Amino acid sequence: MIFTILSFVFFTALVGFVSYLFTRRAHDKGARGYFMASGGLTGWFIAGSMMLTNLSAEQMVGLNGDAYAHNLSAMAWECTAAVATVALAMFFLPRYLRGGFSTLPQFLEERFDATTRRVVSAFFVIGYMLVANPSGLYLGAITFNQVFGVQALFGTSYASTITILVWMSGIIGALYAIFGGLRAVAVSDTINGVGLLIAGLLVPVLGLFALGHGNFLTGVHTIVTQAPEKLSAIGGPHDSVPFGTLFTGMIFANLFYWCTNQAIVQRTFAAKSLAEGQKGVLLSGMMKLLVPLIMMMPGVVAYHLYAQHPLGRPDLAYPQLVTDVLPWWAKGFFIAVLFGTVMSHFNAVINSTATLIAFDFYRPWRPDASDEKLIRVGKIASVVIAVVSLLVAPLLMYAPDGIYTVMRRFTGFYNIPIIAVVLVGFFSKKIGAFPAKMVLLLHVIVYTLGILVFQLDKRLDINFIHIMGILFVCEVTLMLVLGMRHRRVKPYEPQLRQTGDLTPWRHASTMSVFLIAMLVSIYLTFSPIGLARHGGVTMQYEVLIVLTWCAALGLMALFRRKSSAAGALGRAAGEPIGH
């Protein structure tokens, strides 16, 4: 136990020390340095920060619990994000960087009006402060307590244990955000991200060794041949994620989260160049494809390992497996990584919320405010946000419908209308501000009455993800209809504010095709024609895999040829070519 505690303290202190070294050498100056890391983040730091802002301890427990109880269908939330990262890298990011935006609502003011900007920014701030941050802290504390038995170790009550863990992780995370700014957040996220990948892959590998009684291949053979239906990612109507939802609401939920969510896209706004931003975004998409191994395969291993003595609750699958298979020398490192995921999510959201308050509320109110004043406002806002989140987090243990229900339903207030407004804003040059404001207002009313009051999703037995898709189509249609009457005086023309390097990464298109091909291959592999059947893979699987990669390699060769031709023209003209 002493070694475990010492290794935990060592790794946590190492993250802090390395973050300090990077931020000390960076010499970030002014508001842009504090909030946007002086626009100097490279691809590795962008990828690491995006991943740790997205991944959290509760996902490791929740998704593995779902795999233990059902199958791999819930991996859709993670793996299909690869499509959204391609959309961000190839479509959204070039437009964001050309506009030189610090926040997503800043684009909405340029495209629509200041009221639209403030409304969307308010949605983000309220959602981050009352749900995203508190839920991350609370679920992280639960996970920490489950995995390592903190309550039993110190003999405290459950409520006291959760409160102490919430405040401990929250205070340390807030220090990074308040005193270090975005660069400190990105550096700490990247280090913790490397640790998470190592520790996350270690658990299923050691679990397969345990399942095979010391033989890794025997463990693999067991999960492939015994109850192979557990390996199916094709969700049925009554699974947590029915397969059909991938083509309805999940598309737009992922587009919102990865392409318009301030806590995610702020890292890309701070990219050193468009090429570095695209590298970071696509690398994060690649890491999302590892989710079946890290976030769900341990649950399948636990199902087989504890088949003779089933666990009381699915959410105990991951904590129990970690306790049983990790050697004593690795547990302190794993605790530190788990703690780091909670802390990284918290500090990232604090930094983004402070950026919204400083740039979308304070600066328009005080346009002549100095950078020092803007930074001071951001730090004060960070303290307030942290304190409110820390006070709210322990209260979530009393949520009557469970924390996951609270998170899902609250996020539904703003995710679909925001992505609808942003997409219409990009693709239409003439629709005015009134349709955007009406969609934002009507969505809140319709969602409150339909989902929270009358619970139409339950009454009609429609999965809530399908409801997202229906709402998106209705809201885009409403904007287009209202836009026929309420039009801009002049068609929208994007303003070019970015003076940095906007040359695309020359491998961006190739990597995008590779990601999509990998996603298709993963779904084919974990399907009833692949591994999720008795008797092994089918001929149909083999044919589809070959066709997928023939098409992918053909497209990749085409894009490489175009990139080479563009590079030759650029060299002839004396222009820079992609990095």
From TrEMBL:
Pfam families: SSF
Record's bilayer topology term: Multi-pass membrane protein
An example Gene Ontology CC term for this record: plasma membrane
Taxonomic lineage from the root: Bacteria, Pseudomonadati, Pseudomonadota, Betaproteobacteria, Burkholderiales
Alphabetized GO MF terms: D-glucose:sodium symporter activity
Membrane as UniProt keyword: yes
Protein name per the record: Solute:sodium symporter family transporter
Membrane recorded as keyword: yes
InterPro entries the UniProt entry points to: Na/Glc_symporter_sf, Na/solute_symporter
Keywords: Membrane, Transmembrane, Transmembrane helix
Transmembrane segments: 6-22, 34-55, 75-97, 118-138, 158-179, 191-211, 241-260, 281-306, 326-359, 380-399, 411-427, 439-456, 462-484, 505-526, 538-559
Location of this chain's protein in the cell: Membrane
Family stated for the protein in its record: Belongs to the sodium:solute symporter (SSF) (TC 2.A.21) family.
